[in-house]
Structure formats: structure tokens, C-alpha cells
Amino acid sequence: MIDDFENLIEKVFNSDVKDILADGRFGIEKESLRVSQSKISRRKHPESMGSPLCHRYITTDFSEALLELITPPLIDKSAGLTFLDNMHHFVSHKIDDEVIWPFSMPPFVQLDSEIPIASYGSSNLALFKTTYRNGLAHRYGRTMQAIAGIHFNYSLPEQIWKSSLFTKEKVDSKKLRAKMYFRTLRNLHRMNWLVLYLFGASPIVSKNFLNNKQTGFRKLDGHSYYLPYATSLRMSDLGYQNVHQSKLAISLNSLEEYALNLKLATETKCEDYQKIFQEAKEDYPQINSNILQIEDEYYAIARPKSSSDSNQRLTTKLNDTGVDYIELRSLDVNPFQRIGIDLDTVHFLEMFLLYCTLKSSPSINNDEIEESRENDLLVATKGRESGLSLSKNRTKISLQNWANHILDEMMPIAELLDHKTSTFTGIIAKTRTKIMDPDQTLSGMLLNKVLSEKMSFHELGRTIGEDYKKHYFSMETSKNSEWSLLEQESADSIKKQVELEQANEQSFEGFVKEYFNESSCNN
Asked: How confident is the model at residue 243 (pLDDT cuts 50, 70, 90)?
């Protein structure tokens, strides 16, 4: 029986698993703001891109202006990125004179109310989604919710569950998957700081994210400030933050504990949020006044997900169908890539997730989770500082030493994945240079570019966005292998939305009640 203290990397070498390690599926959910003249767009989601409520690939996140592009789960990593590239091409042709903002952090916003909350039509499902977003706006402010990122979804190779690695397991497939994916989650939390160091690309923020409590920030231009050694201010306490959530103890030790803790948070009243009902002007300012309106509100660097497309709530789906994949949520948008991510990053994350799965992963307590948060905050705000030390088992360790140790342990996995190429071992070698030279990280390159070219944050964003738009405008639609699919999906999604609205016989209150009785809708 495999336990959580067992290191499985050695076992993989001597099993039939080594030939299928590269067959895991991955998908990308990429958020990006539509902007005009470096300001967040106030226009509606273009109808030519279909219904964001029902479109499988092109939707919106918090704001009407916050696009979310979703690739299908694929084994072929290059094909997945080509699909994402084709979606950018399609969208670029549908947004008139607007551009896709290339950064995770939004441009300067004069008033929070300038950011339009996403609308999905008149069905109960649409109203549920908008009400949830109203709640987010009241709880955290619209500006925070306009921050964009990339979610990297990954599932282990399907054949692995029937391989010799698990022949002695006496648990059913659902329990085995949950056990293995929770191993992954615990290790991801322990080592997420490395993702922030390597792929953080938000050392600059607009001044509306700052208050008088922050120190160490330097003025970049009239609207923007930066921290000289920051990697991902998006993932710092300036980005996604929730005072009430920080007190939550959501277990990562088993699916049962995780679902129970998360569900409890959706049922526990919060006095501060109760006031929203008394003060807000909308008919539906939030779904409820609980610590979490629904499970999706829980901000975590990674989450277990079900691939079920039913309209049940997250904890119900996880309990019913189990864990099918991991969603890693701590990636910033890479402004140096048209689609916000490149193939080397995908390959590194594939190795890293396999490493987090196969490495021993003992139970994690609240103290260790807090230690991981402290490491994340340290790296997010000053990860490129020379000689920076982190905390591992409450003992100081230099970032460089810990990072190189992780890369050493990842090397056998890289060698297994290489087959006839040196792609993966080559990526490990390139990553080592970034550990030794922080200027080669995305955050280092971005800051150096802004400072050396004496360009404002907004000017750089507009220039990059317009360059990418020109590229897509110069590309013929006939060269886009997904164009017809996306056109068809856009048309079909509008029909589906109309059908939902015509079938809308239940009251909204009844719909919400049914959802929390474990049956109805999907965020």
C-alpha cells in the first residue's frame, strides 16, 4: 500500500509507468482584460464571440471586460498552445479597436465602479453568476477582481491508474486518484514559492493598489509603483486577499476533510458580510453572507477539480465523481509571449507536478500551511533579493539552495520524459541559470525593460498589446485551424443561452435553494 511518506520516483524507474509519463493531459484557462487607450473597456462582451454563459472556450471571469480563454484538455502540449494562439487570433478580430492587456495587474483605475461586472443574460444561472460577482465586488472591491492570471490544469496519464505502480492497492480508483492528487496538492503548497520566483511577472502595480501601510515601493511613473525585488505582487497581500479566508483551516490531507471544511465555510455566517445586505442598492448584492458564498470563492494556489460538467456545486462533484485533475492558479500572465505562456513553461510545470505527485508528501498541518504562505509572500515581494532565505520546517534555508535541491530531485523525471530529445533536461539547465541570476526571471526582465527604456507601465502595456494585435491582424483566418469551430461554438452558445432563458420557470430564490441542496448550478 502506497503511503504519503513514500518516494515513488525510484519505483517509476522500475515500472511500466516510465513510458507513459509524458501522456498527462493539460489545459489552460487564461484571463486577460480588454482595454482601450490603457483603460479597462466598458463595452459589453462582443456578441460575435458568442454567449459567455454557454461558450465552451471563450467566456468572461469577474468583469465583462475580463476575458477567459479555455483550451480543451490535450495530451499534445504544442497542440494545446496552438489552440490558445488560435483563440487569441479569433478574439483579436472580434474586439474592434481594443487590445488584450498583456499584464496580470490591471491598468490604473480612477474609480472602482468603472469596472463593469460580467452579465450573462436573464436565466437563473446567469443571475446566479452575476450575483456571485456582485458579492465579490462588495467584499473585495472590483479592482482586485480585475487581476488576471493563468490557471494550469493537469491530470496524470490515464494509464497510470492501471499500471504496475498501483497493482498492490486495495482501494477503488476514485479513492486512489484522490489520495494521489492530494499528495500533489500538499507538495504544491510547500513549493509554490518556486513557481512565483520563476513565473511571477507582476513586480509593478498601479497606485490604486497601495495605501499608506506599504513600504519599500518606488515610483515608476504617475500611476505606477514597483518593488525592486518583487516577482508576483499579484500573489502578494496586495493581490488576492481576504482577511476572513486567512482564518480558514481547509485541510489538504484528504478529499473528505477538504470537502467538509470547504462546505462548512459556505455555511458559516460572517457579520461583516451581513452588512452588505443592509447597505447595498442591488436586489441581489451577494448570494449569502457566509464566509464563502460558494466554494469557488476560496482563493488557493491550487485546487482539486472534477471534470464533471454537471451543474452541481464543487464539493458535491468532488464527493460524487472524485478528483480528476489539479488546477494550479499561481501563474502570472507572461507579457513576453503573445498567448501569455510558452512551451518551456508548460514542460517545466508538467515535470513539477509529476515531481509533487511522486515525492513523499506527509500530512500537512496549519502551521506548515502558514509557513508556506509566509514563503510565498516573501518570494512574491522580494524573491530576487540577493541571499534571500526561506523557512523549511521552521529552519532557514537559502532560496538558491532549496531551488537547486528541488531541481536535483526533478532531474530523474526530466530524464524519463526526455526519451529521444533533451527538452526536459535542457529546461532544468535553463532554470538553474534563472536561480543563479534573478535578472533572467520574467519579473527581472520586465522591470529591467521598463527602467532601461524609461517607459511607463501603461505605455509598455499598450505597446505590447498593439504589437500582438498587429500580428493577429496580419494572419489570415484561413491559417487558423480553429476559426470555424470557434464561429460555430459562438453561434451555438447564443442558442443555448436563449433556450435556458425560455425554460426559466423557477424563481431565483428557489434556484439558489436547490443549488445548496446539492443539485443545481455551476459557477
From this structure: low
How many residues are given for the chain? Answer: 523
Answer whether 144's CB lies under 8 Å from 240's CB: yes
φ/ψ (deg, to 5) at 126:
-65, -45
Q: Residue 153, class by beta-carbon neighbours within 10 Å (0-12 exposed, 13-18 middle, 19+ buried)? A: buried
CB atoms within 10 A of CB 433: 9
Cβ contact 232:103 at 8 Å:
no
Angle of helix 124-140 relative to helix 271-279, nearest 10 degrees, comes to 110
Tell me the C-alpha to C-alpha distance, in Å, between residue 163 and each of 16, 185, 278, 416.
Answer: 7, 22, 57, 16
How far from chain centre, in Å, is Cα 178?
20
Which string of DSSP letters, residue by residue, matches 463-517?
Answer: HHHHHHHHHHHTS-GGG-TTHHHHHHHHHHHHHHHHHHHHT--S-HHHHHHHHHT
b/e map 491-503, b = 16+ CB within 10 Å: eebbeebeebeee
| 292/135 Cα distance (integer angstroms) | 10
Instruction: For residue range 401-417, list pLDDT tens digits in order.
Output: 999 999 999 999 999 99
User: What would the grid cell of residue 334 be?
Assistant: 507572461
Give φ, ψ of 206 to 5 degrees: -70, 155
SS3 34: strand
3 state SS of 55: coil
Taking the C-alpha atoms of residue 70 and residue 50, their distance in angstroms, rounded to an integer, is 14
**How far are the Cα atoms of 58, 230, 493 from residue 489, in angstroms, in the given order?**
9, 40, 6
Is 208:39 a contact under the CB 8 Å cutoff? no
Gyration radius (Cα) of the chain, Å: 22
Bridge-based pairing of strands 99-100 and 25-36 is: antiparallel
Question: Tens digit of pLDDT for each residue in 377-404?
Answer: 999 999 999 999 999 999 999 999 999 9
> How far apart are the C-alpha atoms of 100 and 473, rounded to whole Å?
13
